């Protein structure tokens, strides 16, 4: 693992790496022969064109997976996409330099690499517990850039993540049932979890004109900010929450933006008021099972108030020691002039020449 990965992810990997794998393992049930069907990976890899079953890498202490291998219409694959390893095996992801910048992010939050496109860059994670751990490249997940590590003889119900994630998806589907009926450009909820900011186009092509949001439905992590950006097409539009929690102005200007930060888990439906009947609807699904995003502090780095407290105490102590010395020196210097020095200490005595005696 590179030094940059170590500094960026040290706390998160040490604290959550083993625990995340253990949770995934506990959710999978009894052991059995590993196959795409028995490990529940068919659904996870439904849009991944280089998935051709689970590659057996058991017996190896270290396994390398390529990041940016040829797949999904370009350098947008992990190679191999799915591997079977023994508990205690270290998986090393190595960047090919193809397909732009990629990252490696576990669906259960147990590990996450930095975003990079540098050829030869590596990131590693050791899998201690049996289970099926799925992961993806966040910006190219919708294109099918997904992977999986099957640890041990795992079988059972893992598909796209933990059972908590599946429950959240089921709840979102229920919330959206019927909402997108008649919306021509709706093709499911687009996963944008892990991203601090997500952009949605206002006035995209759809519903017999430029009367759509694109993508119409996104899944985000708590704390993510959604930015709606106007295309300038289809006349004037607005973004109005179905529950009244947010509403933009009505505008048709290209490049105009409106943003809303979503802190609480839930499904937030919205419309363009004048074009709602035409199908101009959208939704933001805030996934409570996904790791929250934050601009500063926490695992993301930066100095927090808690980090700064010891520096404040130390600074105060130094100031308390230095201040009397500075006052004493000032008094001595002032006393060398023609006029008597002003006393700066209570009870100070003077020499015959008028100076303050320390």
From TrEMBL:
GO molecular-function term, one example from the UniProt record: copper ion binding
User: Which InterPro entries does the annotation name?
Assistant: Amicyanin/Pseudoazurin, BlueCu_1, BlueCu_1_BS, Cupredoxin, Halocyanin, TAT_signal
Q: What is its main location?
A: membrane
Per the database record, which ranges form the Blue (type 1) copper domain? 69-151, 202-286
User: What Gene3D superfamilies is this protein classified in?
Assistant: Cupredoxins - blue copper proteins
Which keywords fit this entry according to its UniProt record?
Copper, Electron transport, Membrane, Metal-binding, Periplasm, Transport
Location of the protein in the cell: Membrane; Periplasm
- Name the GO cellular-component terms: membrane; periplasmic space
Q: What is this protein called?
A: Halocyanin domain-containing protein
Q: Does the keyword Flavoprotein apply?
A: no
Instruction: State how the cofactor is bound.
Output: Binds 1 copper ion per subunit.
The record lists the membrane-crossing segments as none
Source organism of the structure: Halopelagius inordinatus
* Cofactor(s) demanded: Cu cation
The entry's Cu cation-binding residues are 237, 272, 275, 280
Checking Pfam families in the record gives:
Copper-bind (PF00127)
């Amino acid at each position: 693992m590179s030094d940059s990965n170590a500094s960026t992810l040290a706390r998160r990997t040490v604290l959550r790496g083993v625990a995340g794998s253990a949770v995934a393992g506990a959710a999978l049930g009894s052991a059995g022969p590993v196959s795409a069907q028995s490990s529940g990976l068919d659904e996870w890899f439904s849009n991944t064109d280089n998935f051709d079953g689970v590659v057996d890498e058991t017996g190896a202490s270290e396994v390398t997976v390529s990041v940016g291998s040829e797949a999904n219409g370009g350098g947008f694959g992990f190679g191999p996409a799915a591997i079977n390893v023994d508990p205690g095996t270290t998986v090393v992801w190595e960047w090919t330099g193809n397909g732009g910048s990629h990252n490696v992010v576990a669906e259960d939050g147990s590990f996450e690499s930095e975003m990079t496109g540098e050829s030869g860059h590596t990131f590693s994670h050791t899998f201690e517990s049996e289970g099926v751990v799925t992961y993806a490249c966040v910006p190219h997940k919708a294109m099918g850039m997904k992977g999986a590590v099957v640890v041990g003889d795992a079988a059972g119900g893992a598909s796209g993540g933990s059972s908590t994630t599946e429950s959240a998806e089921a709840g979102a589907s229920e919330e959206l049932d019927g909402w997108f009926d008649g919306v021509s450009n709706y093709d499911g909820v687009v996963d944008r979890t892990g991203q601090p900011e997500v952009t949605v186009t206002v006035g995209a092509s759809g519903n017999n004109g430029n009367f759509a949001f694109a993508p119409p439905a996104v899944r985000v992590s708590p704390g993510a900010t959604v930015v709606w950006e106007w295309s300038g097409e289809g006349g004037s539009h607005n973004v109005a929450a179905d529950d009244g929690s947010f509403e933009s102005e009505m505008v048709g200007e290209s490049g105009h933006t409106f943003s809303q930060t979503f802190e609480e888990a839930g499904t937030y439906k919205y419309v363009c008021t004048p074009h709602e009947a035409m199908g101009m609807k959208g939704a933001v699904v805030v996934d409570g099972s996904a790791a929250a995003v934050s601009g500063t502090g926490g695992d993301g780095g930066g100095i927090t108030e808690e980090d700064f407290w010891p520096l404040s105490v130390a600074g105060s102590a130094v100031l308390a020691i230095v201040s009397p010395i500075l006052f004493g020196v000032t008094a001595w210097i002032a006393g060398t002039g023609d006029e008597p020095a002003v006393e700066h200490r209570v009870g100070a005595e003077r020499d015959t020449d008028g100076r303050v005696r320390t």
